């Protein structure tokens, strides 16, 4: 086995279940065209709640990708994760024949911020309305943050290191970093990512306590970060799963190396302390750059956190300037999530997928619904911008105070 210093983690497959597409291809087409799918909330039981606009995943039938025996014991957030994992495994051409003789060489890591709220609410309603005998046996596992990790590993026969990052939004990037560390320690491949389903009534009521949640009822104005009209964020469901492999193992089986997870760092600055997040996010960016051995001027595109809260947007713009120096005003910045909403832990993984596709296609996708940028950032708006992209920086912050940054390098068939 190669030494930890030479074991690079590469992305070989991606699967996306998002409000703007239930496949990677449809997600990317909508993303690069700058299509916004934000709309009025239609999920049953949510129609009369103060949250009016969200990013809903529509046209998704989990039965098309997942066997019935798994569907009945899992929540919608796990349906998204399992379906995305299917797509990612297919994209990476990683099948059972590749690991039948070494099932302990493949692990699973997911991130989750809310768990299975819809499943849990339904069973608790049965408990109070009909009695304990009407509560199904899967209530004990379906709501749990680790449910997606467990079900993906069981279904796929993956017996390697498994885990879950129970965190705020930045947990999506932290899960990718956890997978990379796992590979450095000797695992050959990790199915990793995050998917959330926060649009059930109980889950929405919990979110109503967030002061940063947008309550506007106009989909075109509800989520507009970096503008004078910023009034908070719009939540979303869905997410993405990636196949991350040790580079030599991936190349030896003929897999395509789509990107390299080059560097990551994370900090914590406290819940909703947005002024403090400037220093914390800048420190995370510097740490990710150092981990990737990447100079600030090598960053070709930034996928911003873009919370949509004026103080948070200002802190992020200043953090980018603090960490990238003079290069900050020259690098294009984008936030495709303004067209889909923030899927909590799933949001930065969707951004990571978009960053990989951007580097492959040589284009920076636009930031939907954003025009009048009021910060010193080169935010890409209107339409996609062609560019030679070799290195991308993905940023994420959570409402509870986490900050994370990840550096991605464009894929190549062998180490540079």
Account of the protein in words:
The strands form three sheets. This protein has an eleven-stranded mixed β-sheet with strand order 5-4-6-7-1-8-15-14-9-10-12, sandwiched between helices. A two-stranded antiparallel sheet has the order 2-3. A two-stranded antiparallel sheet has the order 11-13. The protein has two domains: 9-253, Peroxisomal Thiolase, Chain A, domain 1; 263-410, 3-Layer(aba) Sandwich (Peroxisomal Thiolase, Chain A, domain 1), CATH 3.40.47.10. With 416 residues, the chain is an alpha/beta fold. Strand 14 (391-397) and strand 15 (402-410) form a beta hairpin. The longest helix is centred in the C-terminal third of the chain and has 19 residues, at 274-292. 33% of the residues lie in helices and 19% in strands. The protein has helices at 24-32, 68-71, 76-92, 96-99, 117-130, 139-142, 147-156, 171-184, 201-207, 247-252, 274-292, 310-324, 346-361, and strands at 9-17, 39-40, 53-54, 106-112, 162-166, 189-196, 238-246, 259-268, 301-303, 332-334, 363-364, 378-379, 385-386, 391-397, 402-410. The chain contains 13 helices and 15 strands.
Q: What's the tally of helices?
A: 13
| CATH fold-level name of the largest domain | Peroxisomal Thiolase, Chain A, domain 1
The largest sheet has its strands arranged as 5-4-6-7-1-8-15-14-9-10-12
- Our count of domains comes out at 2
Q: How much of the polypeptide forms β-strand, as a percent range?
A: 15-25%
Mean pLDDT: 94
The major beta sheet can be summarized as:
11 strands, mixed
Percent helix, as a range, is 25-40%
Shape: globular
Content-based structural category: alpha/beta
What is the string of SSEs from the N terminus onward? EHEEHHHEHHHEHEHEHEHEHEHEEEEE
Number of strands: 15
CATH class of the largest domain: Alpha Beta
- Low-pLDDT segments, ≥5 res: none
CATH superfamily assignment of the largest domain? Answer: Thiolase/Chalcone synthase
CATH architecture of the largest domain: 3-Layer(aba) Sandwich
Gyration radius from CA atoms, angstroms: 20 Å
Distance between the termini: 20 Å
């Amino acid at each position: 086995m190669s030494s930890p210093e030479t074991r690079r983690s590469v992305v070989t497959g991606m699967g996306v279940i998002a409000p703007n597409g239930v496949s990677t291809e449809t997600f990317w087409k909508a993303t690069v065209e700058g299509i916004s799918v934000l709309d009025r909330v239609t999920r049953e039981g949510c129609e009369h709640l103060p949250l009016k606009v969200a990013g809903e995943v529509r046209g998704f039938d989990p039965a098309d990708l997942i066997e019935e025996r798994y569907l009945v014991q899992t929540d919608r957030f796990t349906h998204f994760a399992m379906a995305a994992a299917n797509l990612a495994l297919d994209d990476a051409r990683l099948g059972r024949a590749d690991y039948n003789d070494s099932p302990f060489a493949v692990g699973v890591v997911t991130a989750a911020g809310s768990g299975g709220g819809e499943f849990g609410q339904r069973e608790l309603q049965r408990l109070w309305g009909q009695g304990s005998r009407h509560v199904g046996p899967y209530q004990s596992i379906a709501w749990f943050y680790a449910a997606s990790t467990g079900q993906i590993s069981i279904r796929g026969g993956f017996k390697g290191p498994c885990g879950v990052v129970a965190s705020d939004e930045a947990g999506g990037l932290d899960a990718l970093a956890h997978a990379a560390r796992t590979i450095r320690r000797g695992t050959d491949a990790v199915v990793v990512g995050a998917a959330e389903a926060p649009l059930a009534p109980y889950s929405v009521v919990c979110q109503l306590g967030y002061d940063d949640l947008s309550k506007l009822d106009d989909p075109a104005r509800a989520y507009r970060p970096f503008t004078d009209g910023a009034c908070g964020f719009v939540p979303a469901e869905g997410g993405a799963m990636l196949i991350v492999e040790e580079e030599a193992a991936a190349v030896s089986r003929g897999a395509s190396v789509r990107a390299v997870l080059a560097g990551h760092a994370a900090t914590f600055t406290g819940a909703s302390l947005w002024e403090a997040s400037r220093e914390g996010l800048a420190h995370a960016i510097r740490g990710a750059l150092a981990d990737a051995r990447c100079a600030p001027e090598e960053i070709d595109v930034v996928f911003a956190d873009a919370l949509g809260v004026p103080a948070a947007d200002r802190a992020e713009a200043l953090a980018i300037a603090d960490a990238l120096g003079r290069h900050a005003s020259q690098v294009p910045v984008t936030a495709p999530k303004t067209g889909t909403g923030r899927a909590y832990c799933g949001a930065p993984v969707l951004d990571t997928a978009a960053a990989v596709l951007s580097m492959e296609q040589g284009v920076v996708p636009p930031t939907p619904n954003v025009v009048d940028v009021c910060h010193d950032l080169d935010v890409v708006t209107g339409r996609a911008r062609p560019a030679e992209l070799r290195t991308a920086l993905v940023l994420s912050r959570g409402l509870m105070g986490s900050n994370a940054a990840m550096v991605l390098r464009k894929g190549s068939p062998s180490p540079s």
